[in-house]
Design goal:
Elements (H helix, E strand, L loop, with lengths): L2 H17 L5 H8 L5 H7 L4 H5 L8 H17 L2 H8 L4 H9 L18 H12 L3 H8 L6 H8 L2 H12 L5 E4 L15 E9 L2 E16 L6 E9 L10 E10 L5 E3 L12 E12 L13 H12 L3 H23 L1 E2 L2 E2 L4 H29 L5 H26 L1 H4 L8 H12 L4 H16 L4 H8 L4 H31 L14 H25 L7 H26 L7 H25 L3 H11 L11 H9 L6 H6 L11 H14 L1 H9 L5 H6 L5 H18 L6 H4 L9 H14 L1
Parallel strand pairs: 1-4, 2-4
Antiparallel strand pairs: 2-3, 3-7, 4-5, 6-7, 8-9
Helix pairs in contact: 1-20, 2-12, 5-8, 8-9, 8-13, 12-15, 13-14, 13-15, 13-27, 14-15, 14-22, 14-23, 14-25, 15-17, 15-18, 18-22, 19-20, 20-21, 21-22, 21-23, 21-24, 22-23, 23-24, 23-25, 27-30
Pathway: Lipid metabolism; fatty acid beta-oxidation
Protein name: Acyl-coenzyme A dehydrogenase
Keywords: FAD, Flavoprotein, Oxidoreductase
Length: about 750
């Protein structure tokens, strides 16, 4: 007997059980999938910075580095994105053969099954480099190594399934895809109507217990060319052939696409990207039970399996592509701004250009920092579900902003399509990343904080499990133990938040990080404020907070900023506190702090319980939102990082695909080197008020060799500024008969006059 439990806790327990919203099986399985990691530290309100800084950096083995510098470079040299899009509408056959032969589809498959056995970081680095050469190729390589049959088999497959299928997936004999999205169920996968009825049937001339499947899927990447389909469906057992339960739940199985009843649909064209994507159907397709991934014991466990796999995949594929896109935008836009002149000066000197350029540079710095930190967790065997959601959402959103900024600075150069346009296709591809693997609107408003508040909170999940316990006495005992720990934690968080907010974080804990130490203090301050406000919102709103999507989104934004800023600080430390990079770090911190303060203010302005909102404002934001964002000095210094050849520029944009093929990117790199190398010569000419280099040679301002260097630089810049044009009959079949657009319209006019 316990006086506290039976007298004080019991009424609270009864009340909480009454207001606790019902949780569906899919919600519970999603919550139980994956792991918590640094997000749990942030939720405590008192993150352990020493723990973060001790996390080993993600690194490549010598074998992985050799693959990146060898086969990946070779693949990049084979790729021509314009021809892939304009002429072939697919990867050419030699590329398909190469990626199969060199086991690009088997990067994550262990060596014992014929794969490469690469780490998550190596997988990320490969996708990142290919992305800077071809989106179509990157997606093609990415998908078999992300959510799909391979990863599911590795985690959940039976020994027989792994031995049968993994070698075939590793060497490309089978091309995989995964069918999850149904027309009736986009983001709401639980509402899919695809079914698998357990029954007896004939398979390969023998009668077995199996599943008769009917499905309709769409948006399936690699679907049109796949030979092995991983399929998600709802399993039913009406005749109780495997147990007493009729509705078994979401299940995943392997479907060889040659089976009778499988229908491969025609191709989709997602945002004019030509990676293989399309719908498929199954009509009365029969498979034996041993085609269920994990076998009969895994019937109905598909959703948890998918969420576990997604916790890893979402942290690698799209963040890698997004980080690559931001780095590529930083390198190309910095180079273009440096060489492009308007009104007699480089456009990089205009403050209106510096501002978006600084945003691109800092975004590239932060996204790659977060990518590396997330890969470090994955390398350690952690599957951070909440962090993967943060990464998918914010990496793709920030890539969108970076690419938009790059397009604005390039102007017409990036608008006119053709083989010399090195940005246009990346711009077209952005909506794909925003939409797939969980639409960003849904992820921001429901998942990041909705899942994080339960999984990453130190006590909430344990309390919910105690409240849901069918044994009331056992649940009460567990709740009593956890609830009072939660109360004590909340009081500690209140004191921390009050002290750190009123002192502007001056005494908040921080490691010795040189110039970055104050940033750690501010994150400690904001972590405490976030944890306190989250606790109060959960206390006052309970399950209704799930329906307050705008509040949930704001909390999610704060949690996301705390993680992304943590990653940037760790990168700063890991790279040896490079002074040249500090401006990028400052920009990230100032922008992130501004977002956090604004979201806190918005939460307090919209929290339904106005008394609690007023109390929280007094505690965590007594002087209002005060951070204005990066200063003009920081913007200028940040933009300057990519305007000259330097170690800082290389650190910011490492391991991009560099192919010397006279394409748009290669031309830009060449012109940038020539222009920056002749900068001092050009300055002497400007000081002497001489514009023509031949006149400058005649007057002795520069030498003949220097003049020829300037001429070469000018010619290189001219080639970069050029845009593509096409013969009318190339763009439209209308003009192919005459070959002359003017003649065509003249004849058209004559025909009209005659009629």
């Amino acid at each position: 007997m316990s006086f506290r439990r039976d007298t004080i806790t019991k009424p609270i327990f009864s009340w909480a059980r009454g207001v606790l919203p019902a949780m569906s099986d899919t919600e519970r399985e999603a919550l139980e999938a994956g792991d918590v990691w640094w997000d749990a530290d942030l939720f405590t309100g008192n993150p352990d910075w020493v723990k973060l800084l001790k996390v080993p950096q993600a690194t490549l083995t010598s074998e992985e580095r050799a693959f990146l510098n060898g086969h990946v470079e070779e693949l990049c040299a084979m790729l021509d994105e314009w021809k892939i899009f304009w002429e072939w509408r697919d990867l050419p056959p030699d590329v398909w053969h190469f990626v199969k032969r060199e086991k690009f589809f088997g990067m994550i498959i262990p060596k014992e099954f014929g794969g490469l056995g690469f780490s998550p970081y190596a997988h990320s680095e490969v996708v990142r480099k290919i992305s800077t050469r071809s989106i179509a190729a990157a997606v093609t390589v990415m998908v078999p190594n992300s959510l799909g049959p391979g990863e599911l088999l590795m985690h959940f497959g039976t020994k027989e399934q792994r031995e049968r299928w993994l070698p075939r997936l590793a060497d490309g004999r089978d091309i995989p895809c995964f069918g999850l999205t149904s027309p009736e169920a986009g983001s709401d996968a639980a509402s899919m109507v695809d079914t698998g009825i357990i029954c007896k049937g004939t398979f390969e001339d023998r009668e077995v217990v199996g599943l008769r499947l009917n499905w309709h899927k769409r948006y399936i990447t690699l679907g049109p060319v796949a030979t092995l389909l991983g399929l998600a469906f709802k399993a039913y057992d009406p005749d109780h052939l495997v147990g007493q339960q009729e509705e078994l739940g979401i299940t995943v199985a392997l479907i060889p696409t040659h089976l009778p009843g499988v229908e491969i649909g025609r191709r989709h064209l997602p945002s004019m990207q030509v990676f293989q994507n399309g719908p498929n159907r199954g009509r009365d397709v029969f498979i034996p039970l041993d085609y269920v991934i994990g076998g009969k014991e895994r019937l109905g466990q598909g959703w948890k399996m998918l969420m576990t796999a997604l916790a890893a995949g979402r942290g690698i594929s799209l963040p890698s592509l997004s980080a690559a896109g931001a780095a590529y935008a930083a390198r190309t836009t910095g180079a273009y701004a440096r060489i492009r002149e308007q009104f007699g000066i480089s456009i990089s000197k205009f403050e209106g250009v510096e501002e978006p350029l600084a945003r691109i540079v800092a975004t590239a710095y932060q996204l790659d920092a977060a990518r590396r930190l997330t890969c470090a967790a994955l390398n350690a065997g952690v599957h951070p579900a909440v962090i993967s959601g943060i990464m998918k959402l914010h990496a793709t959103e920030r890539m969108r902003t970076a690419v938009d900024d790059a397009m604005d600075i390039h102007g017409g150069k990036a608008v006119i399509d053709g083989p010399q346009n090195y940005l246009g296709n990346l711009h077209r591809a952005v909506p794909v990343g925003i939409t797939v693997e969980g639409a960003n609107i849904l992820t921001r408003n429901l998942i990041v904080f909705g899942q994080g508040a339960i999984r990453a909170h130190p006590y909430l999940l344990a309390e919910m499990n105690a409240l849901a316990d069918t044994d009331r006495e056992r649940g009460l005992t567990a709740f009593d133990k956890t609830f009072w720990k939660h109360v004590g934690h909340s009081f500690e968080t209140l004191l921390r938040a009050f002290g750190r907010s009123w002192s502007f974080g001056a005494f908040a804990p921080a490691p010795n990080a040189g110039d970055a130490t104050p940033f750690f203090r501010q994150l400690s301050r904001y972590s405490a404020a976030f944890a306190l406000c989250a606790d109060m919102a959960l206390l006052t709103l309970g399950g209704a907070l799930k329906r307050k999507e705008m509040l949930s989104a704001r909390f999610g934004d704060i949690l996301s900023e705390l993680y992304l800023l943590s990653a940037a600080l760790k990168r700063w430390q890991d790279e040896g506190r490079q002074k040249e990079d500090f401006a990028a770090l400052e920009w990230c911190m100032a922008t992130g702090f501004k977002t956090i303060e604004n979201r806190l203010a918005e939460i307090l302005a919209n929290l339904p319980n106005r008394f609690v909102a007023g109390f929280l404002k007094f505690v965590v934001q007594p002087f209002g939102a005060r951070v204005l964002g990066p200063s003009d000095r920081v913007v200028h210094q940040c933009a300057s990082l990519v305007l000259e050849p330097s170690a800082a520029r290389e650190r910011l944009t490492p391991d991009l695909a560099h192919v010397d093929d006279d394409g748009g990117f290669a031309r830009l790199e060449h012109a940038f080197k020539l222009v920056t190398a002749t900068d001092a010569i050009a300055k002497r000419m400007r000081a002497a008020h001489v514009r023509d280099w031949k006149d400058a040679v005649t007057k002795g301002v520069i030498t003949q060799a220097e003049g020829e260097q300037l001429a070469a630089a000018h010619e290189a810049v001219t080639k970069v500024i050029e845009v593509d044009d096409f013969a009318p009959e190339t763009l439209s079949p209308i003009y192919k008969k005459t070959g002359d657009v003017h003649q065509f319209f003249q004849e058209l006019g004559e025909q009209r006059a005659a009629s």
